[in-house]
Design a protein that fits this description.
The chain is α/β, with parallel strands linked by helices and 121 residues long. The protein contains five helices and five strands.
């Protein structure tokens, strides 16, 4: 399955714009959410092919939100790539244990991100 519809979850407008631009240039459709509440609303409106998930956000963090999404039978099949400034190996391992399919650190290298997305499909 080729990824066409992506939901980007990040509380930084700069990151949302940067990642959206990278994906739009690849012909993907992008929606954005800035927190857990927005994310769940987006999921009920339209199920994406992929979620790019920040970790450090106000309220529910990306690890908690990834776990919540993976435990919900309606959304458990949506792959999640953690996209975060948390660059310790323990962070990566914890993200994967919450259900993420991959993990990339900021600043995001567009070629690396696209390679990870292609590897999903």
């Amino acid at each position: 399955m080729a990824v066409q519809n992506v939901l980007i979850v990040d509380d930084s407008k700069t990151e949302l714009m940067f990642l959206s631009d990278v994906l739009h240039k690849q012909g993907m459709s992008v929606r954005t959410a800035e927190n857990a509440e927005d994310t769940m609303k987006c999921l009920t409106e339209e199920k994406p092919d992929l979620i790019l998930m920040d970790v450090v956000m106000p309220g529910q963090n990306g690890f908690q939100l990834t776990r919540s999404i993976n435990r919900n039978p309606l959304y458990a099949d949506i792959p999640i790539i953690m996209c975060t400034s948390k660059n310790l190996e323990t962070d990566r391992v914890w993200g994967m244990r919450q259900g993420a399919k991959d993990y990339i650190t900021k600043p995001v290298n567009p070629a690396e991100l696209l390679e990870k997305i292609r590897a999903l499909g």
